[in-house]
Design the sequence.
């Protein structure tokens, strides 16, 4: 089917996105969850950049001798997204470090158990 | 790691090239891939590399913490300042073409300062993050 | 890349997962170069494979090594994830095929930037021109976001001096 071949980039994006989502939701370890979040973010980069490419074109730097360029607008958006993604990751990691120092563990269910036990105070 | 000869020599050889590459990417961002973000991250990686091989004390001597913290804020303020300069010279906020007699030259100047501000902030943040995380030490 | 990501999901040793993440970032940067996104590839390689991996390793050192237990009932999240994937797949079928020059993304604003950009700004790299000049506000916001992240980490991790 041409739907499969023509949309190949989208299938890969979906696979990555779903795997990232699964890791984010289904794993209890906080660091694993952050890794899943990062995978989800990078799959979105692919989602935006793949449609920007024109076969036979070149990078969007205007130079003599090239007529067809790939679309620069998604590149700009994703550049911002990458940096914001690493900012989010850094804040998340700082929170994980503090949680580890406060609770002694980074497993979600152990943290919830410790918190539930404290509620009776 | 500072006793391992290969790592020390490699770090001393590579670090100036990494810094030079960061400066190159920053200023060549107009003509090739690059620009403020990439340059900031590559520059910060050079100092991180040095600090990993030679220890945090040497790294902190190279880029002291107060300097890094001021870099953080200075970059963002520089960017906003370019915008205000646009207002001061008669245009709207962040207009570049009023910065010089020739509007295209004004664009060049505006883009130069803006990218410099971005590189400063990004380099400062990445370096500060590394200092905070790696300098913390595990308390069991 | 899909293989790397699946391996990361099943991997229980966290150090291995972080190394796989570095490999995944490099692969993503290579794919981006193949898609002609050179600026983005450079940023992804530097940020994803460089800084992210360093930060993850530092956090891993500070927070502990092995993942303790696997999930008891992996079926519900797996079914939910696959359902979301199916819905996304159904939606993707409506999007234009790969590298279609008539797709709306290529016909509205982009040709104007590609034609007028170097003339109006004097900068051949259209991505830098758009980032710093045409969409300068967004870049200002992003710089503020990076600064806020740095300030947030400082606020969270600063040790009070007990001298």
Sequence:
């Amino acid at each position: 089917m041409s739907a499969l071949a023509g949309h190949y980039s989208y299938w890969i994006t979906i696979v990555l996105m779903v795997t990232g989502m699964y890791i984010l939701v289904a794993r209890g370890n906080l660091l694993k969850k952050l890794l899943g979040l990062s995978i989800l973010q990078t799959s979105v980069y692919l989602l935006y950049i793949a449609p920007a490419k024109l076969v036979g074109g070149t990078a969007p730097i205007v130079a003599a001798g090239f007529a067809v360029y790939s679309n620069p607008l998604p590149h700009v958006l994703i550049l911002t997204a990458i940096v914001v993604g690493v900012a989010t990751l850094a804040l998340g990691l700082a929170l994980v470090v503090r949680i580890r120092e406060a609770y002694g563990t980074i497993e979600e269910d152990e943290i919830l158990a410790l918190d539930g036990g404290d509620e009776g105070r | 790691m500072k006793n391992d000869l290969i790592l020390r020599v490699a770090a001393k050889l590579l670090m100036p090239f990494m810094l030079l590459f960061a400066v190159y990417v920053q200023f060549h961002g107009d003509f090739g891939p690059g620009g403020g973000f990439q340059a900031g991250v590559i520059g910060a990686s050079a100092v991180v590399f040095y600090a990993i091989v030679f220890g945090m004390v040497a790294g902190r001597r190279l880029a002291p913490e107060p300097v890094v913290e001021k870099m953080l804020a200075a970059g963002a303020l520089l960017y906003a300042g370019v915008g205000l300069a646009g207002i001061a010279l008669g245009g709207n906020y962040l207009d570049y073409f009023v910065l010089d007699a020739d509007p295209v030259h004004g664009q060049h100047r505006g883009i130069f300062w803006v990218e410099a501000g971005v590189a400063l902030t990004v380099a400062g943040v990445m370096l500060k993050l590394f200092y905070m995380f790696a300098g913390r030490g595990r308390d069991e | 890349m899909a293989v790397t990501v699946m391996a990361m999901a099943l991997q229980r040793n966290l150090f291995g997962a972080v190394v796989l993440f570095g490999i995944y970032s490099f692969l993503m940067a290579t794919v981006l170069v193949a898609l002609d996104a050179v600026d983005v590839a450079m940023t992804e390689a530097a940020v994803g494979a460089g800084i992210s991996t360093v930060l993850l390793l530092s956090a891993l050192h500070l927070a502990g090594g092995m993942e303790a237990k696997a999930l008891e009932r992996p079926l519900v999240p797996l079914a939910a994830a696959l359902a979301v994937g199916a819905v996304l797949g159904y939606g993707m079928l409506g999007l234009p095929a790969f590298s279609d020059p008539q797709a709306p993304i290529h016909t509205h604003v982009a040709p104007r930037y590609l034609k007028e950009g170097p003339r109006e700004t004097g900068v051949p790299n259209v991505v830098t021109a758009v980032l710093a000049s045409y969409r300068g506000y967004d870049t200002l916001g992003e710089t503020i976001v990076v600064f806020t992240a740095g300030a947030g980490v400082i606020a969270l991790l600063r040790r009070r001096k007990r001298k």
